[in-house]
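A.,

Following up on our hallway conversation. Structure tokens first:
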């Protein structure tokens, strides 16, 4: 699963490399409005006649991509790093399948680590019920809930959580790296 995602991540990084140099921030307040210069992007990459890329850039998914990833100050991720810093590596690996596979596996490992930041935490699996377990007649009814005790537990939890720092990890926002300009990519 992660390797397939890594292949697509690498493909889109190659396809959209240099897109940040064709973004123009029109308005910042109240919400950022960003314009993407499609003609400049296609022209500088020598892909004006490429029907596939033209259709991709005209699609709603790409418009959403620009509005989501266009702001210059936001949380960065693996895609941003690929587009900004790995362009030369991706170019150098063209035509060398073992290197491409190695890079895909590295990306897959990074995707896995991003989704499982604490690998040492073990999750207990719930065992499957045995055959015929649904036919048992000695199933006890669900116990009645003591409303007073529930309120006490809620109050205790609220009292503890007010003094404690938040348990969730906040994403750090940073300036998105622009990467090399589009003019450095000439595609065939």
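Then the amino acids I'd put at each of the 188 positions:
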């Amino acid at each position: 699963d992660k390797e397939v995602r890594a292949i697509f991540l690498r493909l889109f990084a190659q396809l959209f490399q240099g897109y940040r140099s064709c973004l123009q921030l029109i308005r910042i307040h109240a919400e950022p409005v960003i314009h993407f210069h499609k003609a400049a992007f296609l022209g500088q990459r020598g892909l004006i006649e490429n029907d596939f890329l033209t259709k991709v850039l005209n699609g709603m998914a790409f418009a959403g991509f620009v509005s989501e990833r266009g702001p210059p100050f936001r949380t960065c991720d693996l895609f941003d790093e690929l587009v900004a810093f790995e362009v030369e590596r991706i170019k150098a690996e063209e035509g060398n399948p073992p290197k491409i596979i190695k890079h895909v596996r590295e990306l897959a490992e990074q995707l896995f680590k991003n989704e499982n930041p604490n690998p040492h935490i073990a999750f207990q699996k719930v065992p499957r019920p045995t055959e015929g377990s649904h036919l048992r007649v000695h199933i006890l009814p669900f116990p009645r809930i003591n409303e007073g005790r529930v309120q006490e537990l809620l109050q205790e939890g609220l009292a503890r959580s007010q003094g404690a720092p938040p348990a969730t990890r906040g994403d750090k926002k940073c300036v998105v790296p622009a990467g090399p300009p589009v003019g450095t990519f000439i595609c065939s």
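The first strand starts at residue 23 and ends at 27. Curious whether your intuition agrees with the design.

B.
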